[in-house]
Amino acid sequence: MKTSLLLALLLCFPVLGQAAEVDADNRSVEAVVEAFRASIVDKDKPRFIKLFLDQDTVWQNVVGEANLRKMRVKNPEAVKARIDSKDNPTAFIDEIVAEKERQEEKFRNVKIDSDGEIASVYFDYSYHAGDKETNHGKEAWHLVRTDDGWKIVSVIWSVNWTPAEG
Questions:
Q1: In this structure, is residue 65 part of a structural domain?
Q2: Fewer CB within 10 A of the terminal residue: the chain, N end or C end?
């Protein structure tokens, strides 16, 4: 009886070790999410830029269906997902730094999946200028672990204006 109990406990240790590694990875990725948020609030461009592996990071939004319908009333040629080479992390933080009002992106329901080398982050977001929410949706990131820690390699998000505008 003691032998089988001891064997069962020993078999659990690798799982416990793996769980600790996953928790540490998740905390490290959570720190990137918080640094992203704080960089926006603090208008800290150097800190924000360091979160990305490269400035050619995929940076793509897609317009929510209700907003697209309203946009097409004014412009039938409006597209749901437009690729613009000028949209990138640097342009995003430059706009924030130039704004006089406080800016903040709030994150809820953050889900992280990682194997220790790559990670996916998925969450609900809302973006605020001053005290007013301007848009919201879902957002997803891919990250890779580098010699310098976790770096974001892609950011995609849905855009739903608050309230829906055209």
A1: yes
A2: N
